[in-house]
Amino acid sequence: MKNKLDQVDFDILSILTQDAQTPYTEVAKKLIISPGTVHARMRKMRDMGLVTGATLNLDYAVMGWKFTVFLGIYLTENTRYKQVIQHLMQVKEVVKVHHVTGKYDVFIKLHTKDSIHYREIYQNSILTIKGIKGVESFISVEQNLTRHIDFSI
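Given the sequence above, the corresponding structure tokens read:
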């Protein structure tokens, strides 16, 4: 049982992925188990590397960062992806980086305040990275869903 997940673990995760700040006592009440069980199960899942932390979901638009852009990046050589990704991780506006298969070599998500801010990041921080051959931009006009997989029964 030490490195295996059962339905109780999945039920705990389902509750906490909805709100990571839910107290373990409340999780325990919902699942009719003891708070100690929730604590032990969470410790097990952290030790397994399954749970790596808890984050806040932010609405960037509320803070004035109203532009969300996805970039499909072509590399000069596919072997350069590690160096390119390391540079992309240094750009504070970049929030997701994926090494992908298909049309692009790397796919990223970034947030900027507006189109002028985006242009500055695009021209001065992204296109200047050695190893990038080309970029296609996709501006998000609306986000309709953000969620984790629900593993509960």
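The helical segments are 7-18, 24-31, 35-47, 81-88, 115-126. Try to locate this feature in the token string yourself.
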